[in-house]
Amino acid sequence: MKYYLIAGEASGDLHGSNLMKGLYANDPEAQMRFWGGPLMDEVFRAHEKGEGLVADYRVAAVMGVVQVVLQGKQLIDRIERCKADIAQWKPDVVILIDYPGFNFRIAEYAHEDGFRVYYYIAPKVWASREGRIKKLKAWVDKLFIVFPFEKEYFSRHGVPYIYAGNPLVDAIEQSPALSETREAFLERTGLPDRPWIALLAGSRSMEIRTMMPIYMQLADVWHASHPDQLFVVAAAPSRSLKDYAPYVGARDYVKVVFGETYGALRHARAAVINSGTASLEAALIGTPQVVGYKLSSLIPAWVAHKFLKVKYISLGNLILDRLAFREFIQSELTAGALLEELTRLMEDEPYREKMKADYAQIRELLGGSGASDAVARAMIEDLFASLPQNV
């Protein structure tokens, strides 16, 4: 079978690479062509079946409303290039991995042009932009979801889906960062051997611009009373130092590392996180955390809560259906609020242990390892079942 995969961000590259491993393992005739990144490319090069990488997401990623407006022509050109490439290669299935702004356009084209379409890691329509459900029902043959609470939601809306666990469990268990010693991590990254707090500001430019000033306010106040401790900014591999330098300035107690999220979290005493997948990664790794999220300083908290349509903004809390860790949204998100919670995370051992116990429940609800391989097998079975009986 010929599989055409599309991932547009670091997380999609990670999950796409593990999915490709499963597809290669379960379909000896599998051929791959894909939009993705270095992790997907590494898997392809280990097999050399198919035509490989079309475009690397790090070169021309378009993320956020402002970037879409400013780079509209580039985005349209990439979409048209993708459509033409699919038409030329003629895959048996197009597999879309998250990245809804781009992938919904491709889903519409691929469906209308007669290609089978799978969507892996559902767009978070249960959180906002619920109108996209109509597009999922119209253009996607099968949705592969990754959170247990999504089962009831998509069943209620009549969207066919398969749930086989969450690939983050595999990604974290298989990550070299989980077996690397602290000493080796320090030597490899050049970080000093001091206690640190991990800061995750998100991967989008708008998130970095919003979160980093708040983080630096927090760092300044904390450093005044804890001069022996560091803040380590775990930056996305697609970003560069120029994204963070204007905020970090001359602060020698704030360090920036790229593509080291798991290691930075694992060896941190606590983490301050801009929601998203990173908060679930911290929970699976076991790092006590506080989450903050701000859409815009102009939007009050109650409006944001109403817009988001969910009880919580963090995946871990949604999975547990209660607060395992604190969340601050919009005007609630201040350096002072983070400071108060961070103090508790760093110093209150019973509080830390209770959070870790909640993390264990989150992990249990997600299921065990093997999700990526299970999804690959489910895709292959569904794909073969869809073929004409005489093929």
Describe the structure.
This protein has 391 residues and is α/β, with parallel strands linked by helices. The protein has two domains: 2-165 and 370-386, 3-Layer(aba) Sandwich (Rossmann fold); 173-366, 3-Layer(aba) Sandwich (Rossmann fold). The chain has helices at 10-26, 38-47, 57-60, 65-70, 72-89, 100-112, 133-139, 150-156, 167-174, 182-189, 205-225, 241-248, 261-266, 276-285, 301-308, 315-320, 335-347, 349-366, 371-386; strands at residues 2-7, 31-36, 50-56, 93-97, 116-120, 142-145, 161-163, 196-200, 230-235, 254-258, 270-273, 289-293, 327-329. Strands 3-2-1-4-5-6-7 form a seven-stranded parallel beta sheet, sandwiched between helices. Strands 10-9-8-11-12-13 form a six-stranded parallel beta sheet, with helices on both faces. Helix 5 runs parallel beside helix 6 and helix 6 packs parallel to helix 7 (133-139). The radius of gyration is 21 Å and the shape is globular.
> What is the top-level CATH class of the largest domain?
Alpha Beta
Proportion in helices:
40-55%
In the sheet with the most strands, the strands line up as 3-2-1-4-5-6-7
Which band does the percent of strand residues land in? 15-25%
Helix count equals: 19
Number of domains as seen in the coordinates: 2
Output the CATH homologous superfamily of the largest domain. Answer: Glycogen Phosphorylase B
Outline the secondary-structure elements.
Elements lengths: L1 E6 L2 H17 L4 E6 L1 H10 L2 E7 H4 L4 H6 L1 H18 L3 E5 L2 H13 L3 E5 L12 H7 L2 E4 L4 H7 L4 E3 L3 H8 L7 H8 L6 E5 L4 H21 L4 E6 L5 H8 L5 E5 L2 H6 L3 E4 L2 H10 L3 E5 L7 H8 L6 H6 L6 E3 L5 H13 L1 H18 L4 H16 L5
Parallel strand pairs: 1-2, 1-4, 2-3, 4-5, 5-6, 6-7, 8-9, 8-11, 9-10, 11-12, 12-13
Helix pairs in contact: 1-2, 1-19, 5-6, 6-7, 11-12, 11-17
